Amino acid sequence: MKNKKMAGLIIAWAISIILLGTTRATYFVEKAMEVFNFEFSSKEAYVLTVEIVRWLRWLYWGALIFLTFYLSKRQPSNSQ
Questions:
Q1: What is d(CA 35, CA 65) in angstroms, rounded to the nearest whole number?
Q2: pLDDT tens, 30-77?
Q3: How far apart are CA 13 and CA 59, in angstroms?
Q4: Helix (H, G, I), strand (E, B) or coil at 34
Q5: 60 Cβ partners below 8 Å, 6+ apart?
Q6: What span, in angstroms and rounded, lies between the C-alpha atoms of 53 and 57?
């Protein structure tokens, strides 16, 4: 069961690096504008949204790192 969790975690890391590591926050905001068909009322609102997306990305990376350490600590060690 733990091997499945670690395999899932490895897949999550790979997808995260590909999707979040190679794209900019402005791309996500502009893509959301395109998909949801809306415009920002001002330049300041756009910049604030980009900053929020950047912070959310950092929080996501932090949560993924925490989950990695948490699951690796729970792995039973085979050396005795």
A1: 30
A2: 999 999 999 999 999 999 999 999 999 999 999 999 988 888 887 665
A3: 14
A4: helix
A5: 16, 20
A6: 6
Q: How far apart are CA 20 and CA 8, in angstroms?
A: 17
* Residue found by looking up tokens 């733990």 in the block: 2
Contacts with 5 (C-beta within 8 Å, 6 or more apart), sequence order: 71
CA distance 17 to 21: 5
In this structure, are residues 53 and 31 in contact, taking their beta carbons and an 8 Å threshold?
no
CB < 8 Å & 24+ apart, contacts of 47-51: 50/25, 50/26, 51/25
Sign of CA dihedral 59, 61, 63, 65: negative
pTM: 0.74
Type of residue numbered 74: R
Closest CA to 32 of 17, 18, 46, 44: 46
